[in-house]
Amino acid sequence: MTWLHRVARCHAHLCAIVRLYGDPSKAGGQSNQGETYAARAARGDRTLLYDAITVTIDELVEIRDEIQTSMDAAEPTEAAPGTTHKVDEMAARAERGESLFVQGDARQGREPVDGSAG
């Protein structure tokens, strides 16, 4: 399943739950408590919305972390910082949607100062 598909599913699920509070007759399915989502929404059960938000956040954080891992998987370069070759490599990374600074890039023997991009 692609990231965009997973994000769309999260959005659709959350929207469906939110719509229930306006019109509980639109719901189907059972909740973990055994009563329908429609019945829970009709009585104003906030745990229904809370659970939907929690599940959505957890899934979106997982998707975000997978995307970050993918972006950070760029091949490191031995090009020294500030050189044309390093700038060209960083531009190519940006075009590919990869992280500009990755583990293993050449550093000229110094560590970045706290808060700097490195």
Element order: H for helix, E for strand:
HHHH
Tell me what portion of residues adopts beta-strand conformation: under 5%
| Fraction of helical residues | 55-70%
Mean pLDDT: 85
Instruction: Please outline the major beta sheet.
Output: none
Number of strands: 0
Structural class: mainly alpha
Number of contiguous helices: 4
Shape: rod-shaped
In total, the number of domains comes to 2
Intertermini distance: 34 Å
List keywords for this structure.
single chain, 118 residues, mainly alpha, 4 helices, 0% strand
How does this structure look, described?
The protein is mainly alpha-helical and 118 residues long. It folds into two domains: 3-71, no CATH class; 75-102, no CATH class. It contains four helices and no strands. α1 (3-22) packs antiparallel against α3 (46-71). The chain is rod-shaped, with a radius of gyration of 23 Å. It starts with a helix and ends in a 22-residue tail after the last helix. The mean pLDDT is 85.
Structural topology:
Elements: H1 3-22, H2 37-42, H3 46-71, H4 84-96
Task: Provide a compact summary of the structure.
It is built from four helices and no strands. With 118 residues, it is an all-alpha fold.
